[in-house]
Amino acid sequence: MILRKTRQNKFTLPVLLGFLEGGGLTGHFRTLIAGSIEEILRGAGTGKAIVCFSFMTPHLLRVKQEVEQLKKVLGEEATLVVGGSHATGDPEGTARLGFDYVFTGESEKTFPDFLRRFLQNRLPEIKIITGSDGCCFVNDHPPFSLKERFFAPMELTRGCPYRCGFCQTPQIFGHRLRHRRPDFVAGELKRLIPHGYSQAAFISPNAFSYGATSPQAPNLSAIEELLDGCRQTGCDGVHFGCYPSEVRPEWVSPEILELVKKYCRNRTVVLGAQSGSDSLLAKIRRSHSAEQARRASYWIRKAGFMPHVDFVFGFPEEKMEDRELSLTCMKEMIEQDGAKIHAHTYLPLPGTPLFGKEPTRLDSATKNALSHWREKRKLDGWWEEQEVMAWEIVEWRDQGLIGS
Question: Rounded CA gap, 296 and 318, in Å?
Answer without folding.
Answer: 24
